[in-house]
Amino acid sequence: MLKGFKDFLLRGNVVDLAVAVVIGTAFVAIVTAFTNGIINPILAVFGGTDSLGLGFRLVSDKPATFIQVGPIITAAINFVIIAAVLYFILVLPAIAARKRFVAKDDSELTDSEVLRQIRDLLAQGQSSAGGRHES
């Protein structure tokens, strides 16, 4: 049971996933600081004069009904920045390395080609088996 667990942990995909999660988590902090320090003040310019920021109230005299649009825009910007950086920094180089260093598989065989190969192997096996029995 422990050997299977060890094999699971040492598989390439699991290690790659763990590294990606750690790097992604660290990068989220950077992007969040960027959006809080730069994007949010820019969005606040478009907000009203109240301290609630960019958004609107459903009921004009109740502050509790304020719908904040700024945090939604900030989260979307965070997502786009993180996805773009991870794609260009991690995914594209990994794809390029895989193409360069991993041996290419033969193209997928069609069903007919596989059946022909099986037929040829069976024919070779019968001719060599028949020769052994006659001796």
From TrEMBL:
It comes from the Bacteria. The keyword DNA damage does not apply. Coiled coil: none annotated. It holds the Pfam family MscL. Gene3D superfamilies: Large-conductance mechanosensitive channel, MscL, domain 1. It is a multi-pass membrane protein. InterPro entries: Mechanosensitive_channel_CS, MS_channel, MSC/AndL, MscL_channel. One of its GO terms (molecular function) is mechanosensitive monoatomic ion channel activity. The chain crosses the membrane at residues 21-46, 66-90. One of its GO terms (cellular component) is plasma membrane. It is found in: Cell membrane. Channel that opens in response to stretch forces in the membrane lipid bilayer. May participate in the regulation of osmotic pressure changes within the cell. Belongs to the MscL family. This is Large-conductance mechanosensitive channel. The lineage of its organism: Bacteria, Bacillati, Actinomycetota, Actinomycetes, Mycobacteriales. The gene is mscL.
